[in-house]
Write a structure and sequence with these properties.
The structure holds 2 protein chains of 2 kinds. Chain A has 23 helices and no strands. By secondary structure, chain A is an all-alpha fold. The longest helix of chain A has 36 residues. Chain B has one domain: P-loop containing nucleotide triphosphate hydrolases (Rossmann fold, 3-Layer(aba) Sandwich). In chain B, strands 6-7-8-3-9-10 form a 6-stranded mixed beta sheet, sandwiched between helices. In chain B, helix 3 runs parallel beside helix 5 and helix 8 crosses helix 9. The chains are: A mainly alpha, B alpha/beta. Chain A: Pfam families: ABC_tran_2 (PF16949). Chain A: InterPro entries: ABC_tran_2 (IPR031599). Chain A: Keywords: Membrane, Transmembrane, Transmembrane helix.
């Protein structure tokens, strides 16, 4: 069956390139170039970062290990969390699974979910991990064998994270079923609750750290800090084994490398065995999930946003109300929203940790205005891009089946674009402003800087939203309306790559202005943003009206 | 009310509709019948403004659909073959949404919705979400949505698929009454007994071309069918001739 599916996907790719081959090949090439440039940027960032750190004879080794531990922990936690969100939605969904689940090969569904989630989690991680490992290899004596071992360990880590997420969902489902309260919604809510609790637990592990004490910075009797407290801090997490493989490889401890790699492989195999055993119970849970989906359990009035639509006195207001209703009632979308917000929260918490964990040596953003603000700006752009990729970009393709409703009315199709643009711009701007204020209060920047940052952020959010919607409207996908699949299509990946670069350009313009008062780059960035918005609006308008 | 002149619709190089012409006067129920892939839905979607024709013209109430789509669409009520609506929207919200897009005020919508809901006995289900409706109920709400703004032309693609016998009878009665009040109905179906029962004229479509147009009696005559022959027999004879 898997070979059949592999052939199906392979043929799908060939079919994709059969029409408009040149344009699609150019898009793919551009995407690969952007991806390569992104990987190069990650590599250079790590390389110069590690090079800088190792110059410090006292902190060098300890801080490097700490950074690798933290990086791998966050990466694996994000993989686990996104697998949790994807899994809880896709395991019990009634899409095209009915055919598979009515056949004797019904356990194929969770297996496909596992394989899909593994590969979709693996490649973005590799885009970051491979350049990071190459940077480590250049700075530290990692060696080729150490690099290969660490790479294998990272692949095992992804496999463990994805399997753990699915097992957690099955565990929750089993508990809920035994309490006779199992439903799609109860699994989603319980998983979300568990996710939030585990996030808080992990955050708590690091919240109270005083980095000065942690690295024994005031202990004049020591030549280098003791690594034990750092390693103890992380030894609960599977990502620790990957760090240790890097560390042992640097030290030339081959036996320890193999032992750690073996431990990861064993854990993967154990989880896989449990998974294969657990999926035998998939069908009854799926059946119950469908019962609650359909007849009998009708949810009554009092839905969020109902009055907005009923009181809409103009077509555009009705469209806006529709966008609001569909957004707030989309449980799956809300889970993703919560997931991205939690990740954003983790980033804000790490800012808090860095500024408050330094005790008396605390450095405020005012001391490093350009750097601190540029960093904040780049992060905000990244998170807004994630929201736009998940919600704005797929919104036109998601409506392909119900598109007839608006298309058959006297309303211009541009109105749909406008309503989506207004709705998502306001929503994303509100979130961006909220997090800007939160981060500004943590880092501590002046009022003028904050005002400038807020203005800059709003312009950027509107540009990214327009770009996402325009791309989604110009290249609607006729094969799927699944927002998760749509987000990983070529135009979707192209969107995120270009957005990240746009964000970096904005951050650099920002830094230039605050570091040396260079206003030209800021003006160029703002002009570029406004022209981009207008251009995308006009091109999309023309395209939609022609359809 | 509707005049279709020599329309052609191609998908890539394949002609789904090839030089089709017909017209429907107010008070008429015109049925287009034909096998799968004969171009029925393509014609309806072109009239509704969901597809752009490659040739020919479509006039609705004196407005060219290509030149004045806004004016043309304002007098059309469209019922698709697949009543897909956003699952998290309730039936009542859907009716309000469609009404608002046609420029109806909230009070006008409330009055009209209260008048329409009892027609299909769906009062009480309007606050359920679409994802909880059966196919039949989705179809009923899409029919009500098409009638909401009091159109002059109804485009109905497969009117009774998914409807129970009682609701199918109600739908047929609704279309008849609509025509009796001066409206024009274009019915697209391969449920031949429905076409036979309520149509004033019928067009037989095959491979994108209109083979024959006329009243049922005229078609029977052309097909050299016996008195009492059903539309199915007439249809078989007409499509075999070609």
């Amino acid at each position: 069956m898997f070979s059949f599916l592999a052939t199906y996907y392979r043929k799908g790719i060939i079919r994709y390139f059969e029409r408009n081959t040149l344009a699609k090949s150019l898009t793919l090439t551009a995407f690969l170039v952007v991806l390569g440039a992104f990987a190069a940027l990650v590599h250079e960032g790590f390389y110069y970062g590690f090079l800088y750190i190792t110059r410090d004879a006292f902190f060098g080794e300890a801080v490097s290990i700490y950074i690798i531990e933290l990086f791998l922990l966050i990466s694996s936690f994000l993989t686990f969390s996104s697998a949790l969100v994807s899994g809880v939605v896709s395991l019990y969904r009634d899409d095209d699974a009915g055919l598979v689940l009515s056949s004797p090969s019904y356990t194929l569904k969770p297996k496909i979910v596992l394989v899909r989630m593994f590969f979709s989690s693996l490649w973005p991680l590799l885009v970051v991990i491979v350049p990071a490992l190459l940077a480590i290899m250049r700075v530290f004596p990692l060696g080729v064998m150490g690099f290969v071992a660490a790479l294998f360990a990272a692949v095992f880590l992804v496999f463990i994270a994805v399997q753990a997420a699915l097992l957690v969902i099955y565990f929750i489902a089993a508990i809920l079923a035994s309490l006779a309260i199992f439903s799609r919604l109860s699994v989603m809510l319980s998983t979300t609750l568990l996710f939030l609790c585990s996030t808080l637990l992990i955050a708590n592990q690091f919240r109270s750290i005083d980095l000065v004490d942690f690295f024994q910075a005031r202990l004049l009797s020591k030549d280098v800090p003791d690594l034990a407290p750092i390693l103890e801090q992380f030894n609960l997490f599977p990502s620790h084994a990957v760090t240790m493989i890097v560390y042992y490889s640097e030290q030339g401890m081959v036996a320890s490398v193999l032992l750690s790699l073996g431990a990861l492989a064993l854990l993967s195999a154990f989880l896989f065995t449990v998974f294969m055993f657990t999926i035998k119970r998939h069908l009854p849970y799926w059946q119950i999930a469908q019962e609650h989906e359909g007849a009998g359990k009708h949810t009554r009035s009092g839905f969020r946003g109902a009055t907005l639509l009923m009181n809409a006195d103009r077509p555009l207001r009705a469209l806006l109300a529709k966008e609001f209703i569909l957004f707030v009632r989309n449980v799956r979308g809300m889970l993703w929203l919560a997931f991205i917000l939690v990740v954003w929260g983790i980033q804000s918490a790490s800012s808090f940790l860095l500024t408050h964990g330094l005790g008396d040596e605390r450095v405020s953003g005012v001391a490093l205005p350009g750097m601190a603000m540029a960093f904040q700006f780049a992060l905000i752009t990244y998170f807004v891009s994630m929201f736009a990729l998940r919600f704005a970009f797929p919104s036109f393709s998601e409506e392909r089946k119900s598109g007839w409703v608006v298309a058959s009315t006297p309303l211009r199709r541009t109105s749909v674009f406008r309503s989506k643009l207004y709705f998502f711009s306001v929503l994303f701007s509100a979130l961006a402003i909220l997090f800007t204020l939160l981060n500004a209060s943590i880092v501590g920047i002046t009022g003028a800087m904050l005002l400038f940052l807020l203005l800059f952020v709003t312009i950027t959010v509107v540009t990214i939203t327009t770009y996402a919607l325009a791309l989604g409207a110009l290249f609607p996908n006729t094969e799927t309306d699944d927002p998760e699949v749509l987000s990983t299509t070529l135009p979707g990946l192209m969107f995120i790559a270009v957005s990240v670069f746009y964000g970096i350009a904005g951050a650099l313009a920002f830094r230039g202005y605050f570091a040396s008062g260079a206003i030209a780059s800021v003006l160029l960035y703002v002009t570029f943003s406004i022209v981009t918005v207008l251009l995308f609006f006009l091109v999309t308008k023309k395209s939609l009206e022609r359809k | 009310m509707l005049t279709v002149t020599h329309i052609v619709k191609k998908f890539d190089d394949i002609a789904a509709v090839n030089d089709v012409s017909f017209s429907i006067a107010p008070g008429e129920i015109f049925s287009l019948i034909g096998p799968n892939s004969s171009g029925k839905t393509t014609i309806v979607k072109s009239i509704a403004g969901l597809l752009q024709v490659n040739g020919g013209t479509i006039w609705v109430d004196g407005h060219d659909v290509a030149v004045s789509p806004k004016e043309a669409k304002a007098v059309i009520g469209y019922i698709p073959d697949e009543p897909s609506v956003w699952g998290s929207m309730t039936g009542e919200e859907f009716l309000h949404f469609v009404g608002a897009l046609y420029g109806m005020s909230p009070s006008q919508r409330v009055a009209k919705i209260n008048e329409l809901l009892p027609l299909f006995s769906v009062t009480g289900t309007e606050k359920d979400q679409f994802q909880n409706y059966s196919r039949g109920n989705k179809q009923k709400f899409s029919i009500l949505a098409a009638l909401l703004h009091e159109p002059k032309l109804l485009l109905v693609d497969e009117p009774i698929v998914g409807l129970d016998p009682e609701s199918a009878a109600i739908a047929k009665k609704l279309f008849r009454e609509f025509a009796k009040r001066g409206g024009a109905v274009l019915l697209v179906t391969h449920t031949l007994p429905v076409a036979e029962e309520i149509s004033t004229r019928i067009g037989v479509l095959k491979d994108g071309a209109l083979l024959s147009v006329g009243t049922f009696d005229e078609l029977r005559e052309r097909a050299q069918g016996e008195v009492g022959a059903t539309l199915e027999q007439v249809y078989t004879a007409l499509t075999k001739v070609r």
